[in-house]
Amino acid sequence: MKVLLLRSIPENSKVDKYQEVFSADDIGCESVSPIGFEFFNLRELYQCIQKPNDFSGIIFSSPRTVLSVKLCIEEHSSLNEWQTSLQDTWASLPAFSVGTSTASEAHSLGFKTVGDDSGNAENLVQVILEKVQPKQAPLLFPCGTMRRDVIPYALKDKNISFTPCTVYKTCPEPHLKENLQKYLQENGLPHAVVFFSPSGVKFAEAVLKELKIIPSEQCQYFAIGSTTEKAMLDHGMDISGIAEKPSPESLLKCITESGMMESRKHPDVVQEKLC
Fold first, then answer.
1. Distance between CA 135 and CA 212 in Å, rounded?
2. How confident is the model at residue 101 (pLDDT cuts 50, 70, 90)?
3. Considering only Cβ atoms within 10 Å of each terminal Cβ, which end of the chain, N or C, has fewer?
4. Backbone phi, psi, residue 57, to 5°
5. One cellular component GO annotation, for this chain's record (predicted)?
6. Rounded distance between C-alpha atoms, residue 30 and residue 183, angstroms
7. Model's pTM, two decimal places?
8. Are 50 and 42 in contact (CB under 8 A)?
């Protein structure tokens, strides 16, 4: 069985956890990113990072938000300065992380994360509200231009202060078609295609149709989380399953429970459906 993940691979990861978990079940797993990112306002972000005592914590809503911190340190200071004068103070504050991939990136910089298994912004908000009280120092909130308003609205409603800092924008991956063509040449049509974000849905849909990587008995679509599910439904896509959390274990469970793996082991099941 072959699974195509439409996702960005974290730069600091020595081991791809999705490949690790899926290969243990004899499933081929490859990632192709449909999106790219452009970073800006990093000096403004670093000015905040230099003042950890002005904040009660930091919110990481995606791996890109962690990368923005790493980049602002590299561009406007040094990792040595971070490690000797800032890291310990930030490590004493909660770093609220929406998922395990984001948490892994944050750990590489020395942050101590909370809410790693939250899986989405709605659940992460509940974790934040358990840890932070009104009138505390604000939370630092690096974010992208296409951020959802779930976290800001919920924090404002509970009088939790936060300092947003918009530091990246999402854009289409310019080589998506070529990368998907290469994937098809090396692997053939995937049995499962997994979308990780609404942006990925938006940027990949037309290319997938052009290359005929579309839902069928041989190829099914899956979503990570309810937000991605909604985007797929808005684009008229057929969905075979929704992973509750952005983790390889949750996704593997989702695909397993869809019955797809059994149909791959027993091709006659597919033939029966076709008759």
1. 54
2. confident
3. C
4. 160, -175
5. cytosol
6. 8
7. 0.73
8. no
